[in-house]
Amino acid sequence: MMYILAACLMAWIAMPQQTSAQTLRGNSNQQIGSISSDGVIRNKNNSQVGKIESNGTIRNRNNAQIGKIDSDGTIRNANNSKIGKVESDGTVRDGNNAQIGKIESDGTVRNKNNSSIGRASGVKKEWAAVAFFFFDL
Hints:
- The protein has one domain (20-134).
- A hairpin with a 4-residue loop joins strand 3 and strand 4.
- The protein is α+β, with helices and mostly antiparallel strands.
- The chain has helices at residues 2-14, 125-134; strands at residues 22-26, 31-35, 40-43, 48-52, 57-60, 65-69, 74-77, 82-86, 91-94, 99-103, 108-111, 116-119.
- The chain contains two helices and twelve strands.
- Keywords: Signal.
């Protein structure tokens, strides 16, 4: 038993650790991913699925630019077409301005019917919106 615990501890120590990564949780409080302080988005298996750079550039797992978040919260695809927007109150809209969700100030993520679909506490609301509504975690 001691050998198993030691092996598990050594494996955990050898794993790359994310500093300041905030866990993204589903509605049943299960971990569905994380966003690190430098914008790396990971799925529940800890595989990188994308990144949001400090200038708003959104990249996929292959580091290809797939979009951008403008300073006003507008989310654009690689062709610079508007595909969504995060308003100052956390409301998330699609490219046709229809409400598709909301990121509450406490990190609760809601769908268009105002039902809770998860939590993203401690994550910038624009980043949380991109992770929940525009990435497949």
